[in-house]
UniProtKB/TrEMBL annotation:
NCBIfam families: urea_trans_UrtE
UniProtKB keywords: Amino-acid transport, ATP-binding, Nucleotide-binding, Transport
Record-annotated ABC transporter domain positions: 9-229
Organism for this UniProt entry: Paenibacillus mucilaginosus 3016
PANTHER family named in the record: HIGH-AFFINITY BRANCHED-CHAIN AMINO ACID TRANSPORT ATP-BINDING PROTEIN, HIGH-AFFINITY BRANCHED-CHAIN AMINO ACID TRANSPORT ATP-BINDING PROTEIN LIVF
Protein name: Urea ABC transporter ATP-binding protein UrtE
Amino acid sequence: AGQASGAGLELKHLEAGYGESMILRDVSLTVKPGQVVCLMGRNGVGKSTLMKTVMGLIKPKRGTIAYGGQNYTKQPPDRRAKAGIGYVPQGRDVFPQLTVEENLLLGLEAADAKLRRAGIPQHVFDKFPVLKEMIHRKGGDLSGGQQQQLSIARALVSEPKLLLLDEPMEGIQPSIVMDIERVIESIKASRTMSVLLIEQSLSFATSIADYYYVLDKGVIVAEGSSADL
Ligand code: ATP
Ligand code: MG
């Protein structure tokens, strides 16, 4: 096997929240290059807050965020996307009036003009064939599961080195859950991307993830290799 080319993430003693209320109190977590890591925890414990903090949408009060061996704690959000962090937020993230194609190209920076001219790369359609058939349809006309595939596909267009997925299987039917699992399996096998994924189901953590963390009351209360679950 070749060397993993995904970029690692290291959070150390992260403290973050909204205004005065600190949701993350002291969170340390590592995603190694090429690894698939699952973040679990009950509703409202701060899993999404953690991802938003990694993306720079929330400024940490304390602690550090390192990505690809560099300190990103104080970098503005757009620097993270440019540096190859893809982010799929929780819930539907599709613009209903734009076509599938427009939705897919939306994530590209002006700097990616070349990619924009070349159109949607084939590797995206290889992962989500249904999107190719629907390329000219409006985002809003897709089913919930198809929209979820579209959000993930958008993050993959620019081939991120680290992919953050916030509950991508939430509220979708089992067959599409399997499609998304298959995509994550193929990312894992290629080891060209690291994945941090929020997912409540134990079965995912045990079947696909290499490592898991459980968040509760602002701290990591359990972690380990998925084989130990
Ligand atoms: P779920 O499993 O339901 O997605 P979660 O673990 O992702 O939950 P977060 O969305 O991170 O939880 O929310 C953590 C806490 O922060 C909750 O108590 C929530 O009410 C609060 N919170 C979330 N977003 C905001 C916001 N924009 N302003 C203030 N408080 C917020
Ligand atoms: Mg959440």
